[in-house]
Amino acid sequence: MTMRLFFTILLLVAWILPAQALQLRDPESHFFDETFGDLQEELATAKEQGKKAILIMFEMEECPFCRRMKSKVLNRDDIQDYFREHFLILTMDVEGDLEITDFQGNTTTQKEFALKQFRVRATPVFQFVDLDGKPIKKGRYTGATSDADEFKLLGQYVVDERYKETSFVRYKRQMKQEKKELKE
Question: Which residue of 37, 94, 137, 158 sits 20 to 30 Å from the alpha carbon of 131, by its own alpha carbon?
């Protein structure tokens, strides 16, 4: 009887510990920052808060890959905490008629902003913007990442400013190789 109780407790502990290690939270309130549509103001806020950049997720309501990112990656507390520490994070509806003020102070709609200034034609698009309001040249990722680890690596790529010297694909390869060498 005691052996059975021991295995039952062991099974419960093994089941509970991983659940406690990762918490899932609503990305709308825990990943994205609230915005009032003035991107110049958002730049000032990002600078005041010591952020590395602004991250814009271009999305649309019917996008299955956007939903996948929100339900599998952006809802994780470890992802939310890391990205909120380093970036001001905004969402932009590529079909939205909501009026915004862009980084240059011009009035436009979310739809026009996405299409004309960032040439977004597929979603999701994750675009990092520097604190001068300019898109980071190699700081754009189109589509859903394969998993949360890849998305976090994308954030680290920008935080460490590796985009200045290499592409994200090469950076991923290099990090994978370094991780493999550490295990050996």
Answer: 94
Q: How far is CA 173 from CA 74, 138, 145, 153, in A?
A: 23, 16, 15, 11
pLDDT at position 15: 55
Long-range contacts of the stretch 17-25 (C-beta < 8 A, 24+): 22/76, 22/77, 22/78, 23/76, 23/77, 24/75, 24/76, 24/77, 25/75, 25/76, 25/77, 25/80
Alpha-carbon dihedral angle through residues 145, 150, 152, 154, given to the nearest 10 degrees: -80
For residue 123, the Cα-to-chain-centroid distance in whole angstroms is 13
List all residues 6 or more positions away from 80 whose beta carbon is below 8 Å from its beta carbon: 25, 27, 30, 31, 74
**What pLDDT is attached to residue 22?**
85
CATH superfamily of 24-183: Glutaredoxin (3.40.30.10)
Instruction: Write out pLDDT tens, residues 83-107.
Output: 999 999 999 999 999 999 999 999 9
Distance of alpha carbon 104 from alpha carbon 137, whole angstroms: 18
Domain ranges in the chain?
Answer: 24-183
Contact 123, 59 (CB under 8 A): yes
The pLDDT assigned to 164 comes to: 96
Cα separation, 58 vs 69, in Å, equals 12
Residue 179 has what pLDDT?
85
